[in-house]
Structure formats: C-alpha cells, structure tokens
Specification:
Rossmann fold, alpha/beta, globular, eight-stranded mixed β-sheet, 2 domains, 14% strand, 29% helix
Amino acid sequence: MRRSRSRWSVGPLWVCLSRRLSRGVGNPKRKGGEQAREHGSTSLTVGPVGVIAMVGLLFLGAITDATPSRRPQRSDCAERVFRKVRYRAASRHNVLDLYLPKGAAEEPPALIVWLHAGGWAGGSRASVRLWALRQVCRGYAVAAVDYRLSEEAVFPAQVRDVRAAIRFLRLNQTAYHIDTSRIVVWGASAGGHLASLLGTTAGGEEFASPGEDPDISSRVSAVIDWWGPTDFTRMDLQFPAVCKRTKCHTCPGSAESRLLGCAVRACPERARRASPQSYASADDAPMLIQHGAHDCTVPYRQGLLLHDALDAVGVPVEFQLVPRARHGDGRWSAPEVMSAVDAFLDLHLTSRDPTTQRDVELPTGAPSRLAPRVR
C-alpha cells in the first residue's frame, strides 16, 4: 500500500536557502563564509535569520516528507457518485451516498455498505473517506449510510434504518448498476454495533419496520465489525489494565443509555435486545471482528463475546486483536489491518481467490497510518 505525500514540497525552497546560506546570507562576515566554501570547508557560519529559516524548513520537511498524509481518501476511482440519496422518509438523516467504480455499467459490482461511528449521537456518512472508500479502487461499489441519531429516535430506530437502506439498494439495483446479491456491511464503533445486529437479525422479523415488504430481503453476505460494542451491561468491567480512566457505560447519560432511552443498569432487558449475540444462530452472516488491544472506549472483550457466541453456533467468524490500537486511531489504516479487510471482502464478494490478489495502486490521498481518531 502506497503512502501519500503532502502537496507541499520543501525541496526547491531548501535548495535555494542552502545555496544562499552557503554564500553567507544572514551572516555579517559574508566574505569569510565565501572563503570557507572556496577551500572546501564543511563548516558554515550562519546568522540568526538563517538559523531560524533552516530550523523552520527542517521542521516543515519532517512534517511533509516523513509523515504520511492525514488527508482522507479521495474518490478518484469512482466513475459516478450519487449523493444524498433518500432511502426512506422517516427522517432527514435517512440518506446515503453511493460510489460506483469504473466499469459498473458493463458489469454491476458487488456492494459494501459503510455505517459510521459516533456513539449513535453523532458522526456521518462522510467518514467513509477515512477507510472504506479505497474499496472503490478495488472494483467494489460503496454506499455510505446515515441513520437516525439517538437524540431523534431511540433504539431500534437505527437498525431499522439500516435494514431500510439495504432493502432500498436491493430494490433499485438495476437503476444504480450494482449487484445486491453480494453485500458486505462494514461499520465502526456504533456502526459496528449496527452492522453486527444486521448480520444476526436480517433473516428474521425482530426489527422489521411496519409495512416492510417481506419479499425484499435485508440479509447480507457478510459483516465487518470494527470496535463495536456488543453487550452494554458488561462494558464497565471489561477494560484492559492500560486504560486508567474510562467512562461509565451503564450510567444515565452514557451514549448507550441515550440510545436505549433509559439507563443501561435500569433496563437490562432493553440492553439485551440491543445485543447482537442475543440473536446468534447458525444462519447468521459470516463476520470479521477487529478490535484494538488498547481500546479504552469500547473494550476488546466486547468483540470476543460476539465471536464466542457466533462460534458456538457454527457461524464462520474471525476475531483479530490489533496490538496497541486504540478506538479509531491511526493504526486502523495500517497495511496489516487493511490486508485482512481486503481478503475478507474478496472471499465473500467475489469468486476470486483472495490469496492471489495484489494490492491496488491507490490514488493520491490513499489511506495513511495516521487517520484521525474517532470518538
């Protein structure tokens, strides 16, 4: 995977300044400086202005040349983008963006659905540009979905929105030139929680909306869960020792309590209903669960709970613990993480052997190791 560089370049400035300084610029003893150069001396006397300029450019050079870009991924590989597509009329938040790869009109691509983080109270579909958008360069269509936030509607409104988005895309697959017989839903944090719920309940009626057409399925081929909570009642007791300060997840006012509409500790039955592993069954979608070993927002043992529940009923599931990774920090753009994602997607969305796939040449702005942290 190629690292992208900043658009700023200090090369010409550095060369120019070096030449000027070698002539004694900023040095009251200019002749001495020239004499030293003529005799091949490597020592150079630089005045205060020259020192400040050199330090500034060295610092700028370290930022622009040694550090991968923090810029989000661009949509260069998308042949066409449909923005703010309304997939249901329940809320202004019920919109999605759909990115189509080149050649979609000739051969409809498989679909990846991205669900954003934000504690069910914030975030937006724009976060697709941090991690998932690069998959357009690999030949997949990507839909980034917004859903109702907890200040507008409590659970299960969010998972119903996600189901509606899947069904909308499936109903309109011909118009958008996508193949919805192959869908992987991929979510981070709150989005990971919703993705996991979709994977364990899409085949049933637990979260069906009133008037939902039973002939249009919301079932998906597979799920990628990034650092999603799975059992609100147990989170407070599961944090690793590296986490010195953590928030109370069962207290009134927590993100989980706002989602449920009551304090987690006061309504354990509602919390159970929001737990993906409560619905684990043999026909659930295969899952890749990735979590950070140093996650102090959602402890990695939450992912293990879901893994164990799915594994117990025979669902293909893989749990990957990312060393030292925190909640949404730059390690989630590391090659070893993205390679696991790529292989999982190829396994469930194509007939290609994922072990034979090579890394694509990504455009400028490809994912860096220093993606912004997500809360």
